[in-house]
Structures are given as structure tokens and as C-alpha cells.
Amino acid sequence: MGIKNWLNTLLLKRVDQSIIEEDVLKYLYKNEEKNKTSNFQSINNELVFSEEQIDKSIQQLIKNQSIVNSNQSLLLEEKGRTAAIKLIRRHRIYEKYLSEKTGFSKSSWHHKAEEMEHALTDEEVNLMSKELGNPQFDPHGDPIPTKDGQLPKLKGISLSKIEHNCTVKVLHIEDEPKRVYKSIIKQGLHIGSIMTINFTSSVYATEGHALNFNKKDLENITVQVLKEEEEIPKGIVRLSLLKKGEKAVITGLSSECRGINRRRLLDLGFVKGSKISINMVSPLSDPTAYLIRETLIALRKEQTDMILIKKINNDAE
Fold first, then answer.
1. Do 64 and 33 share a domain, yes or no?
2. Which of 2, 19, 241, 300 has a CA between 20 and 30 Å from the CA of residue 30?
3. Sign of CA dihedral 298, 301, 302, 304
4. Which stretches within 64-212 are classed as H helix?
5. Are 173 and 110 in contact (CB under 8 A)?
6. Does 131 score more than 50 pLDDT?
7. Is the dihedral of CA 174, 177, 180, 182 positive or negative?
8. What is the reported pLDDT for 231?
């Protein structure tokens, strides 16, 4: 028995079979979206369950007419597609809940949602969605299926397909595979950020930050090209780029700043139009104390990356 199967036997032998079946359906649906074919081997390579568990799940799904085996390719039937979309709805609503209502870091949302998507009922998800204002997108920019099973198509174009200098808006950051997702968010790219692309100098820049992407990173970022007639913000950078002695006016908060953190910053006065400057920098440069509305407030760098500003002349009133 291989190491993978041995570990799975020890750690996952008590897993409810329905969980494995749902994961198989979700895998098939996502491959269908990408126009990729699926078979037993591809599923076995992707999912963490044993070969025996996966095979048993596939046979059961074929038996209940959720999937069909056609020329060694596994295809979703309508029943299976409906179940997969329901699972995706539960996952994305819960990710949205984590981003808006808790203080968990975004690197943990996907994992926690993968655990809860099998436990939540449709009724619980509908109540959660209502509390969140029936959102259309999850925190990664993925469209959320409606409660009647409609899943809108993701708009935009892959960043890997942009071949000319332009300005784009970030619409979506794919959270799988996890390694690529962590590589992207480590650089501080935010959903909703405006990015300029200059192929002459091989520069991707957003809100004053230069970014370095590899091919896999580019493929996992979806953007909308902003046309010349559209209003493109000028001179907007993150508060983390403000230097001592400089003054700025707050233009807003990043769309990545959500829930408790967003409410706290707004309550502290970090609202559009407020003037801000640096009062004091700690010996290690983090945190930094800012003067805003005659109040001294200390913020760490991860917080200042969420606050957008426009620098002003020292003599500007």
C-alpha cells in the first residue's frame, strides 16, 4: 500500500461517503468549466481520499444517475450538476461570511469553507446569504450561485492573455492551487485594485507597489481592461508608501478590507477626505503612528496596505 493510501486509511476512514461523493461532483464541475476531461485517475490524483473510497463514490454516483461513464470519461448528469452547484454555493457563501463577519486571515478562508460546505444545510446558507445582503461574489471574486441554482459566468480575461500596455482592474484571484494563491496574495494584490501593465519595462504595478508574477500567477488572475474613456484613478497609492514629512488625503479603503477590520478603521476616522500624516515611526518601522483628525493612531503595515491615499503638497490646506 502506498504512503498516500496508508495515510488516507488512518486519517479518513471515518469520512462520511457523501462527503467524498460531493467532492467528486465539485471536481467534475470545475473541470467541465475549464473544458477538461475527467476520469478516475485524474480524480484520484486531485482528491485526498483512498482509491477504494473514490471508486466506491464514483460507482454510487453512476448508480444514482448523477454522473455517467462515457468512453472512460466521467461526465456530469443534470442531477449531479445541480448538486455540485449547491455545494459551490455553500462554499462561497461561507467564504464571504468568514471575510465579512470574522477576523480569520484570507489565507485560511478556503480551507475552512471546504470543511463547512459539507455540514451546512441549504436553509442555513440561505439565512447566511440574507444576513450578508445576498452577495453576488465571494471574497476571491468568484460569482456565487443563486439559491435557485443559477451560476453566472465569471467575466473578464486572464492576466496571462494581456499582451499590450494597459490599465486593468483585478476582478478575481483563483484560490486553487493553494501554492499559487499564496504566492499571489503574499505580494499584496487585492480584488478591485487598479493595475498598470508596462511590457517595455516588464512592470506590473498596483497602488504604488511593483509586483512580480510568474506564468502560473498570471493564469490565476482575472482582470477587466479599463478603456481610455473610463475614469482611471491617478496618483492613488497605499498608506504604507507615505513617508515621514509627507501629507496625504484618504481616498478610500481597499475592497480587501472587510468586516470587523473595515468597521474599525472607519470608526477611527479613516474615511474619504480625511487628511493624514506620519507622527512617529517605531524603531522597527512597524507599527507607525499616524495623525488623523487630531488623533494619534498606530497601525501595522498590513493595515496600512488596505488604506488608499493621494499625497498632497506640504503647503496644501
1. yes
2. 2
3. positive
4. 78-101, 106-116, 122-131, 178-186
5. no
6. yes
7. positive
8. 67
Rounded Cα distance, 217 and 223, in Å = 13
CB atoms within 10 A of CB 232: 14
In this prediction, residue 134 carries a pLDDT of: 95
DSSP of 231-242: ----SEEEGGG-
> CA-based angle 240:301:216, to the nearest 5?
90
Cα–Cα distance, 242 to 248 (Å, whole number): 8
What sign does the dihedral 48-52-58-64 (CA atoms) show? Answer: negative
- Using one digit for the tens of pLDDT, what is the confidence trace for 252-292? 999 888 888 889 999 999 999 999 999 998 887 789 999 99
Contacts of 266 (CB under 8 A, 6+ apart): 253
Residue 81 located in a structural domain: no
Q: Which domain holds residue 72?
A: 3-76
Burial 264-278 (b: 16+ CB within 10 A, else e): ebeeeebeeebebbb
d(CA 39, CA 47): 12
pLDDT tens digits, one per residue of 110-129: 999 998 999 999 999 999 99
Query: What are the grid coordinates assigned to 39, written together?
Result: 476520469
> Which contiguous run of DSSP H or E holds residue 67?
strand 67-70
Question: Can you tell me whether residue 218 is helix, strand or coil?
Answer: helix
Q: How far apart are CA 152 and CA 171, in angstroms?
A: 14
Q: How many domains does the chain have?
A: 3
Alpha carbons 14 and 20: distance in angstroms, whole number: 11
Q: Which residue has the cell 478603456?
A: 227
How many residues belong to the chain? Answer: 317
